[in-house]
Structures are given as C-alpha cells and as structure tokens.
Amino acid sequence: MTRALIIVESCFGNTRAIADSVAAGLIDGGVDAQVVDVDEAPSCLPADLDLLILGAPTHNRGLPTAATRAKACAQAGSGKASHGIGGWLETTVIPASTTAAAFDTVISKGWLSGSAAKAIAKALQRHQGRRTASVRSFVVTASKGPLATGQETDAHSWGRELAASANTR
C-alpha cells in the first residue's frame, strides 16, 4: 500500500485542518496517510515512504521565522513555538524514492501575499536537491482564520489527486 506522511506547522489550527482534509482525501484514494505536527516529526524518514507532504502558514510572504512563529503562538495562546518546517527541513534527509508536495495557508492568493508552500519547494530544492511534485495554497479569511468557504473540500480533492498520482508510480 502507498504510504504518505503529512508534516504540518500550525498555530491557529487552520493549516492543521487543511492537513487533515488532505489526509482524508489520500485515504479515500487508497493511500495510508498520517498527519504529524512538526514538533513530533521524525528526523529520519522511513525508506519506504512514498509521499511526503509539508504544510505551513504563510508569514511575511514566506515560511514562518522563529519570531513570527513565537508571535503567532502567543496570539493563539498555545505558548509553544517549534523549530518549524524550515528548521525541520534543514536537519532531515528525505529518501530519494519519496515524492514531495507542499501546501500553505494564506490570506489571499497572489504574488503580493507570498507563499510558504513555494518557500518549502525552494528549501527542498536547496537542501535536498529535489523538485516538489505539487504546490497548493489554501485561503484563510484573516491571520487567525477561519478558513475561507470550500477550502477543506478543495484540500480533500487535492488529497485525492495526490493519491491517484502516487498510486500510478
């Protein structure tokens, strides 16, 4: 069976909700999918992992930094600021056989808003020398959310698309 791991960074829960919807779409598509918070993500990925999906909120037109992450976690009242997806990528080796995809949550789509998903794709290229198979953005209505109407449905559909692609490899 095809295996997928979704590693997500989320302070307000919106990016996590998208990750859960993507996982549901993957599972509906016949993929064994698991969602893990970046704080609990393994530093060594299993060699038989078929698909790795990384998700983060967009902060200041890119990936969260230590400062923006701490501020968001304080606003969310969670008080826990992790090393984030960027830090995790710097210390993890992804098996060559694993396909990677990335997503983010963003207040609006467009060049002005930037994209954490595109920053993840660049980091994967820089640190791992690999291309990202798919990059998607999902809209939140404000920095704390909620998700815009239909975004969880779109995430589920994207998960199904990823499953169909992964199952044909």
TrEMBL record:
Residues 149-169 are annotated as: Disordered. Residues 4-163 form the Flavodoxin-like domain. One of its GO terms (molecular function) is FMN binding. SUPFAM superfamilies: Flavoproteins (SSF52218). This is Flavodoxin domain-containing protein.
